[in-house]
Design brief:
The model has no long low-confidence stretch (mean pLDDT 87). 66% of the residues lie in helices and 0% in strands. The two termini are 22 Å apart. The chain has a single domain, classed as lambda repressor-like DNA-binding domains (434 Repressor (Amino-terminal Domain)). With 93 residues, the protein is mainly α.
């Protein structure tokens, strides 16, 4: 977990409703972290990644923020552009 995220979580109200809302978005936060990590490992800026994917920097920013969930096609493009190997698993809850 990044320092910034830990700082934000520490400042969040500790109510059960807030915790439930955060937990409901946990998978999306994990996906965002994976996308950012792949881009950083590839040594790319958002603009450079966008150019490789044939899109705009603002689209990459939305994907990385979790504001826009990517399609499988977009995930595959993202993986190719960052020279990553995508792994998608569905685990029993």
């Amino acid at each position: 977990m990044t320092k910034r995220l830990r700082t934000i979580k520490r400042k969040m109200p500790a109510g059960l409703e807030v915790r439930a809302a955060y937990d409901a978005k946990a998978e999306e936060f994990n996906l965002s972290r994976e996308l950012i990590g792949a881009r950083v490992r590839a040594g790319l800026t958002q603009a450079e990644l966008a150019k490789r994917m044939g899109t705009t920097q603002s689209v990459i920013a939305r994907l990385e923020s979790g504001a826009q969930l990517p399609s499988v096609s977009t995930l595959l493009k993202f993986a190719r552009a960052t020279r990553s190997r995508p792994v998608i698993k569905l685990l029993a809850a």
